[in-house]
Amino acid sequence: MVRVSERYETGMRVRRQVLGDAHVDRAEAEKTPLDAAFQSLITESAWGTVWASDAISLRERSMLTLALLAATGNFEEIPMHIRATARTGATREDVMEVFQHVAIYAGVPRANHALKLARATYAEMERGDE
Question: Per UniProt, what is one GO molecular function of this protein (predicted)?
Answer without folding.
Answer: peroxiredoxin activity
